[in-house]
């Protein structure tokens, strides 16, 4: 008689969730169920290109059920996590209750508004496909309104775009919007002059790309400045009232569109022990990614805070590579537990970081050296094609990039407004 497979429930189908499933999908000792509020995996580093109408959402997304075809030990449960019940090994979702032998939490983060209610209610985040499409609609609708108005003050209010946060996401979307103003708006909106001059990039730190090398920081500031982006450093956004962004130094910027990329906080997981929660709502885990105060619950990626790695005593950076490596290590450890073997503690291997600034220009910090320019841009394109799931997605994205960069004229500027919520 064959042993009953261990039930592994994975909550969250991002980098960590998908990669641990890859590690277990061929091992019939495990019955794996993925829980996610969406029915598709998507690639967050390219959300800003969806938001700026450069690529289609389908280029960076892939249905879970399509991914699980012919995998006998994989199942998908569409639902939102409501509560974890460690005492009876169950989780509650808005669409049902699931039992588990091992629970893996890879729920990621949400935008951190630092207690600013007006900012939370009225700014636009960049955390999901829905956020990206919503931002695209705002940008395009405001440009349509701007060409109709005769009031120069109102036109500036409609065209001004404030990006709060000078990390990779903020820098990349600023560069993309500036390119859009230079190559597209001038052709399609002749009434609008110098769209890129209406872009503001705000950060409270003294440099853009704060976690990257000084060379990368200087290159980003130099290139964005040449594109016309107005960079404000050493000043934080403090409020957003009546269409005005209020800065910590008292300055105000009129804008209808404020893009919030200024920080993240862990998503809430009700039911976990109080002692398992750390700074910024991240879940405390040991060297094997097991949640503090539990026996069979694990946390991976951005949501977890792991201080056992000697090179990262304050926790790992919240990067895709960390999530992927967490997942691979835990997947192998779950197999070792079934085999009765010793577990391997997690240690992060830094493979570097990158950010695209503008057309044919990027910055790359690799473990041994840093470089910028065209070759960094080519490497960025290559690196961002590899993790995409599905051969068809890679081909579609490569073609979309090639055509858009050559012609400076992508054809995706569609204003799509769903009339009602499904489900």
Characteristic key phrases:
423 residues; alpha/beta; FAD/NAD(P)-binding domain; 5-stranded parallel beta sheet; 11 helices; 25 strands; globular
The CATH architecture of the domain at 117-262 is: 3-Layer(bba) Sandwich
Number of strand elements: 25
Strand order, biggest sheet?
5-2-1-9-21
**Which consecutive residue ranges, at least 5 long each, have pLDDT under 50?**
none
Q: Please give the alpha-carbon distance between the first and last residues.
A: 42 Å
CATH topology of the domain at 117-262: FAD/NAD(P)-binding domain
CATH class of the domain at 117-262: Alpha Beta
Descriptive overview:
This protein has 423 residues and is of the alpha/beta class. Among the domains are: 6-37 and 79-111 and 265-339, FAD/NAD(P)-binding domain, CATH 3.50.50.60; 117-262, 3-Layer(bba) Sandwich (FAD/NAD(P)-binding domain), CATH 3.50.50. The chain contains eleven helices and 25 strands. The strands form eight sheets. Strands 5-2-1-9-21 form a five-stranded parallel β-sheet, with helices on one face. A five-stranded parallel β-sheet has the order 11-18-12-13-14. The longest helix has 21 residues, at 168-188.
Please provide a brief summary of the model:
With 423 residues, the chain is α/β, with parallel strands linked by helices. Helices cover 32% and strands 24% of the residues.
Please write out the topology.
Layout: E1 6-11, H1 15-24, E2 30-36, E3 40-42, H2 47-51, E4 61-63, H3 64-67, E5 74-78, E6 81-85, E7 90-93, E8 96-99, E9 102-105, E10 109-111, H4 117-122, E11 124-125, H5 129-148, H6 152-159, E12 161-164, H7 168-188, E13 199-202, H8 214-226, E14 230-232, E15 237-241, E16 244-247, E17 252-254, E18 257-260, E19 264-266, E20 283-285, E21 297-299, E22 304-306, H9 320-339, E23 353-358, E24 361-365, E25 370-373, H10 374-385, H11 391-407
Parallel strand pairs: 1-2, 1-9, 2-5, 9-21, 11-18, 12-13, 12-18, 13-14, 20-22
Antiparallel strand pairs: 3-4, 6-7, 7-8, 10-19, 15-16, 16-17, 23-24, 24-25
Helix pairs in contact: 1-9, 5-6
